[in-house]
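Work through what follows:
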Amino acid sequence: MNKHQEMIEKAHEELNKYKKSVSDHEWSLQYHVMPQANWMNDPNGFSMFNGEYHLFYQHHPYSPEWGPMYWGHVKSKDLVHWEHLPIALAPSEPYDIDGCFSGSAIEKDEKLFLFYTGNRWTGPDQDKDLKQVQCLAVSDDGIHFEKIAENPVIEAAPSGDIHPFHFRDPKVWKEGDYYYCVLGSQTKERIGQALLYRSPDLLKWEFVNVMARGTGNMGYMWECPDLFSLSGQDVLVMSPQGVKPEGDIYHNLHQSVYVLGKLDLQQGKFQFDQFQLLDYGFDFYAPQTTVDHLGRRVLVGWMAMWESEMPEQEHDWAGAITIPRIMSIEEHRVKCVPAPELETLRFNQVSYSNVLMDGSRIFEGVDGDCLELNVLLDMKQASQFGINLRMDTASTEKTVLTFDCQNQKLTLNRDYSGKGPGGERKAPVELNKGKLQLTLFLDKSSLEVFIQNGEKVMTARIYPDEHSKGIEFFSDGEVELLKLDKWSLRRSIS
């Protein structure tokens, strides 16, 4: 057994100590990918291989805090039921000894290749004293991976106004006769940018150009870039660090955005428009996409935020992945809707229709902590409508969604959500002929809100008491609930 495999075996021994207690805990998510134990961050290597979805993730198997990065691994036939597989990568070589950082996956010659950043600390300052290189690992079966002898395949950042060390998160794809790769970077004066490379064979890489660079309030480092075409438009998804708050937006430590534009592959230049947020909530970072066998562009993100309080760490785990979201473009904006396959988890439906309400109201059978809730309402004469979620019997613990009709904003407030961080986030929302549509996914310690059929999304981790399961609707005037559907959702992660 080689060193890489030995490290993977030891990591699993550690995970086995905690995975039962983690799975049994009241905050353990039922239909979201999360680690069996200990730390998780960025989704990596999201791909299709042998007809199945493969999803990897940044993983520290030895504690619920960030540490030397491994790649955890799950797979699914349907985007809903996920199976944990052996750890795919461990930091076993001199070039990745301090972490197998984020990257992507691609199929070539009936093999699955992982393209990742090898990280090595060269001194005590982790922002300055580091060496990052790009590496490959390969698998015949999509489960067991070996690092190639030619590593690193990109061993230094290009010359020019490019930071020599902050150089990471390769996203690879094939177009025509070449493989292309976009990498996150910054200038020497700390301005975020993305680099474009190409290769005939995944082994020999040629730097093409600085593909895009920030101006103004676009951050000092562009992490986890992901470039693709959707509905005839080129889209760059990325996670800029250091964007300053502007009004109601950019209040998380780091952001996840997209820009629409046009890529010139020959010149390696991407002309783009302004940033647009992918998620207006608290907990969404490092999203990554893939194209599936149905031709859909599917997106997932890390359902957490750097430096945020994570109460689950006291229970030997941290971090999760959002539900899969299907992307589309309408009127020059990206829309994200829940993967329809999630409907297979539904049971115990409760429905109401054409209900007039004014004030507060609780609907029999509409409660729980692991559910989907679909709401379509006409605001009528009301200026405010809201929903209290995960509410206790005294109404003191609750997560509050409020729509302000005059200001056309939806606010998500978790000041009274239970343990963990509070605060509020706001999303601009326009009514559609006076109507508001919301689709909510509640899991044991998470909330995802899809607004106006995916025009906006808000994601949050919440940590209420396990007995807080109430749902209450409220308004300051007459509204009509045209349609209210609630389903309980089954567990889908093994």
